[in-house]
Amino acid sequence: QGQVMSEPELASYRDVLPAVTCDSGMPFPFYEDGKWGYMRCDGTVLLTPRFESAWRFSENRAAVKEGGKYG
User: Fold this and answer.
1) CB-CB neighbours of 50 under 10 Å
2) How many CB atoms lie within 10 A of CB 48?
C-alpha cells in the first residue's frame, strides 16, 4: 500500500494478484493500457479499465481513484 510501482512491476503484480484473491471469490483489479479495471477469476471483465487506481474488495466494497477523486 502506498508504494509507487513501475509498469513492469505492475504487470508482475497483476499476474500474481488473481491467484491471491480468487480464493475469496471476489472480483480483482487488473491493469491494462495505463488504467485499472475489475474482473472475475474466470476472466470475465466486470468493469473495463478506467480507474487511475483500484484496490481489492473488502466487505463487498473496493476503493477506486478516478479523475483525481477517490470513491
Assistant:
1) 12
2) 12
Helices and strands (H, E) in the chain, number of each type:
1, 6
List of residues 6+ apart from 32 with CB closer than 8 A: 49
Residue 54, C-alpha cell as written in the block:
483500484
Distance CA 7, CA 25 (A): 26
Q: Do the Cβ atoms of 16 and 3 come closer than 8 Å?
A: no
> What's the pTM?
0.69
The pLDDT assigned to 67 comes to: 93
Query: Distance between CA 16 and CA 71 in Å, rounded?
Result: 25
